Queue: 4 jobs
Job 1
Amino acid sequence: MKRIIKKLGKAFDAMNDAGIFARTNFWCCQTCAINAIPDGVTDYCFYHRQDTDDLEDNGSCYLSFGGDAAKIIKILEAHDIVVHWSGKVTERIYVSEK
């Protein structure tokens, strides 16, 4: 289970390098995290503390995002992370280990 946390950390570093506001274990919940995103930021990806619990327990979780989902997914997959997403901007991206 800890492997995916390391993989996500590297993927989130790559997202930040690509200009995406990306944070791991970001705030306590979805509402607080969304409100903590700096004004003007449109491309972002994060998982919050409740999601971290899922990662530790199950090796999978949902990611919140805004902006270019295809760019985020490409970075995640390049870091050997399994991605499931419906293609709907109203639904979070689900990630897990292979």
Job 2
Amino acid sequence: MAINVLAAADLHLGRRSAGLPANDETLASKNAWQRLVQWAIDKEVDVVALAGDVVDQDNSYYESIGSLQAGFDLLGQAGIQVFMVSGNHDYRVLPQMLSTRYPHVHLLGSSGQWECGIFRKEGETVQFVGRSFPSGSPTQTTSPVSLLRPDQWISGLPTVGLIHGDLFDPLSVYCPIRSNDLAATGIGTWVLGHIHKPYEEDLAGTTIHYPGSLQALSAKEKGPHGFLLLRVEEHRKSIEKVFLSTVRYEDLEVSVDGLNTREAFQAHLVDMVQRDAETRLAELDDVRFLSYDIRLIGQHDQEAAVMGWASASQNELALRIGSEVTASVRSVESQIAPAIGDLNELSREPSPAGILAGTILALRAGTDTPLLTALEAKWENQQRELQRAAVYLPLMAAGPTAATPSDGRGHLLRECNRLLSQLQQQRRANE
């Protein structure tokens, strides 16, 4: 008889999806938790495994406790066991919530030490090895994986490791861990919390999974979101992704070539959103809001006007897709290149426009100029200062966010295009 394990992370009860109607209850993370619980009951899941940050933070305690308790009660009544670890948001809250009343809920390693819990069902066994964030601090700068000893679980049994930590930043203050160290433990499956973007890796027979946030909570969390369903039978394992989020954030490129009136642009934008959304219909069963970040591309000699036409869509567009989904525009970014003719010819001018044209050509070709080298150095310095700022650290939970040199060149290209377009418009106005 197979054992079915529902594995999720980063519920962040107390939060809601950003940039969408504030009065819609389906955007609240507690709603996603309620639907997860009902799904587990309807599908007769045996175990729910949670990899931390179930509650958003201390100041969400009162908002979260009722829905969390109600979910645990329903799971208990259905005979479903819960194995979980705490993360950097709920390291103090979860021990308070679970101190009594829930014999079927097991908070592993609440003392900061590794702990093993075992689930048995009709001859099948799965064990869960986990370690919670220490209760004294929301930060940890060293990996605890080296403290995990083989005698802390039963060798030879199917095993799921649970930990909340950062797989991508060795200097993270939120429990840095390494894939190779996880694989070296001999545990076959790891479920991790902290990074909100779904991620998976297979390393020497060890599978490592970030389920990602259960509900997509911000535009940084692109794509489908939900949980994993692990099925273990006779030491064989299969893993299925289940999408549950009511929100999906996506990027969409829209060309502005040849769109010279507001009406033409508006019709084109609506058509592009409609077409993209319809290609995703098969993945939108639970989605109610499809939110787009629009990137304008192509060439145009009236960038400011086009941006004005596009920006209006952020407040006005609410496009119905199928019977349940509403598509909208969250943001608009310009990567419009100036329609200025021959850049090579312009770059020969000893003018600001000529210098910008030469810089654009170098960026496109992947080469350097003295100005470009100086601009890149300044951009990199500003990025380092930003990433050291305290306000930046919470953003790391949504996934790897460190900017790359290609990000810098992309930003510089957009700015050079914008400035050159403005210069050329001023030149034409003065002629």
Job 3
Amino acid sequence: MSDLARRPGSRPTRRQREDRAYRLVLATGAFSVIAVVAVVLAVVGVISLGPAVLAAVVAAVCALILRRTLAGGG
């Protein structure tokens, strides 16, 4: 314990965590909107349901990463 200086790269700064969380919120919202619009277009018959499912999966992954980012901030 003679050297109390933080090791570089050990943990992101608070500002970096805030930026990451903000970007994840934007991505989750955007992919959620895309999924809803794609479902509506699929019901109308313009496109297939594939893009809606893909966008929903990506939105869910972004939400999980966001949750992990926010939980690790303590």
Job 4
Amino acid sequence: MDTSKEYLKMCEKAGEIQRVHQWQEGDCFINPSGFLGFYCGQCSSEYGFYEKSVWLPRQDQLQEMIGGDIQYRWDRCNEFWFDITHSVGSFEQLWLAFVMKEKFNKIWNGEEWVIK
């Protein structure tokens, strides 16, 4: 699981996926005070800080957003890999960039997601 500063920033700025995310048991997040943790449904009402937290999607969650079978996802992402102009530090960063391009026609410029 990528918890690098770059991935945290990429996720935080990906409002399109943050707004529609429904928390699931075990989701990785970082809250405003910098606490990195995993979502616990039993604790959510008790602590209530998840709504201000940034969801850090796992690679499998990002792949599911693309749809299709595993081979389709891999083939599409493989094509994308060769087209991107910036380097990615992890597969989570690659898949998040792919999701944002496929679903929202946005690319990461190092600071924010911009329409291509």
